[in-house]
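Our preliminary data section would be incomplete without showing what the modeling component actually yields. Below, a chain of 319 amino acids is followed by its predicted structure, encoded as tokens that our downstream tools consume directly.
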Amino acid sequence: MKLELAGRDKQGPVRLHIDVQNQFSTTGHWLRGIFHCHVDQIAEPHAVCEHYRQLGFDFLGSSDYNSVTTMPRTSGNLITLQGAEVYCPAKTDLLHVICTGLQHHVTPLNGSLDDVQRLVRDVQAQDGLSILAHPAWSDLTWPELINLSSSGISGFEVSNRLCWRINGKGRADQVWQMLLNEGCRLAAIGADDANSWDEDVVGQTWTGVLATEPTLKGILDAVRLNRTYASEGPQIRSIELLEPGVVRVQSSACAACHFVSRGYGARTARSLRLSEQFELDLAEDGYRIKDWLYICLEDELGRRAWSSVIPLTVRVSPA
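Predicted structure:
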């Protein structure tokens, strides 16, 4: 979508030439679920699936260590995915990759960063996809993160609840944002990473996907197309670009919505009372946007939700 607006910057009136590719503008089904859950460590898979279904989740993926746990068939209103959390058994480093949508086992990593590309190809051959697990907790170096982000991995765990529970290293949003600046546009993923019935972990962090169909394929395609958000509680219901140049976010009740772009862009919208709608006026704040925009909602408890990045470029010319 292309827009041309009469706007302002710090010096006065300008013309804003905006090009936005809003992947959230499609029709579809908003689904809530988890790709990273140690189902076999928690209990019998049927019981785990039923528990998440009662919590209101739409999908659940297994991700036991280097092992594909057989999940019950999709039934009722819970879509199931089979997967594994893959790592190198011979090393003590914390490079872990969530592989989801698997039909059978994959070979563990051999400890080399280059082997991640092999793993990603093996997963893609099964029509699955790969997600970088708990980047903050893993203490990956910047060169490692750049290497991994170009390996074909589709998603990035912006928030991981178990890591929050262990030592507070659950959020990796700042590292994710730095990768965005380098052109690494990985889908925002949230995970509880549950490995027991711990109520502080189970279902507390999750992924929202805008799927064109409520199926396993629809969910995986949504991740590939960056139609996701990672959440610690807030729910995104829509992200729209309206004429004449307003970004409108509809959500569960929140205290603030941070419209985030490169550098000092773009703007925080706050509400004195909890609100379910927030707006960014591009005529007023469009000049502050460069290359991309994502939505970060915050509720009254400080819990956040991060949308995947929306490609959005702005060129400013004299009025």
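The chain has two domains: 2-25+235-318, 29-226. Residues 29-226 form a domain with the TIM Barrel fold (CATH 3.20.20.140). Preliminary results of this kind motivate Aim 1 of the renewal.
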